[in-house]
Amino acid sequence: LVVVDGGWDVNADSVRSKIKSMGGSVDAWILTHPHDDHIGAFCEIYKNPDGIKIKKVYAVDMAAPELCLKNAPWDGVDMYQRFLELEIPNLKLLHAGDKIKKGQICIEVLNAYEDKTDELSDDLLNDGSMMFLVKGKTEKMLFCSDVGKSMSTYLMEKYGDVLDCEYVQMGHHGNGGLLPEFYKKVSPDAAFFDAPGWLFYDTTGTYNTPEKRKLMESIGCAIYSFETTPNSIVLK
């Protein structure tokens, strides 16, 4: 069982319940970046596991909270500070190029905070988040986390056709995020939007998730969101 992020701190009870229903033991918990809506539930569960066993935690070797705030003064780092205070002994920090083998799948990190992120981004916590491939025998799924447009061209040039996948988890919940050219490079059969209805169907013009949905439909993708849960695929 591999868990990716988990949501806000208020989602902890539902995440804990789901993990228990699947045996109560997490082989690997991947934390893509230390924003509240990604690590909040983990911080609550780690503090009070209530019978859950977490064998290994993987996270990004992120820039210090002070640097993140200097880079993006509008951002928040309170949950990031809480995470650092946990002092997790079974934590492994990952970098681009690292690989994890779990059961029959291989997880390969394509993006994580590095010096290049400082050079390209004014949003370190998002652009420095973990982008990774989950590889089966013949198929792949790309998890884009909250990586955004500032990293798009760099990642396309760095990885080229490696990005070509059957499935993609949309960057930054499908709002803003990676450039259209990036998704055309991935050319997936299905796109997963980690987005509730108010974001997925935004009518205020505040968010561009509807435009990203139309983009992915034009590529020929099946579209999945919170609305279609439970969502599942078998990675061949």
Structure description:
The chain is α/β, with parallel strands linked by helices and 236 residues long. The mean pLDDT is 97. Helix content is 33%, strand content 20%. The strands form three sheets. The protein has a seven-stranded mixed beta sheet, covered by helices on one side. A four-stranded parallel beta sheet has the order 1-3-5-6, with helices on one face. Strands 2-4 form a two-stranded parallel sheet. α2 packs parallel to α4. It contains ten helices and 13 strands. It is globular and about 45 Å long. 40% of the residues are buried.
Strand order of the largest sheet: 7-8-9-10-11-12-13
**Helix residue percentage:** 25-40%
Distance between the amino and carboxyl termini = 17 Å
Profile the largest sheet.
7 strands, mixed
Number of strands: 13
Low-confidence stretches: none
Label the overall shape.
Answer: globular
Gyration radius (Cα, Å) is 17 Å
Q: What average pLDDT do the residues reach?
A: 97
Secondary-structure class: alpha/beta
Number of helices: 10
Order of helices and strands: EHEEHEEHHEEEHHEEHEHEHHE
List keywords for this structure.
236 residues; alpha/beta; seven-stranded mixed sheet
Question: Mind sketching the topology for me?
Answer:
Layout: E1 2-4, H1 12-21, E2 25-26, E3 28-31, H2 36-47, E4 53-54, E5 57-60, H3 65-71, H4 78-85, E6 91-94, E7 99-102, E8 105-111, H5 115-120, H6 124-127, E9 131-135, E10 140-143, H7 152-159, E11 167-169, H8 180-186, E12 190-192, H9 197-200, H10 209-219, E13 222-224
Parallel strand pairs: 1-3, 2-4, 3-5, 5-6, 10-11, 11-12, 12-13
Antiparallel strand pairs: 7-8, 8-9, 9-10
Helix pairs in contact: 1-2, 2-4
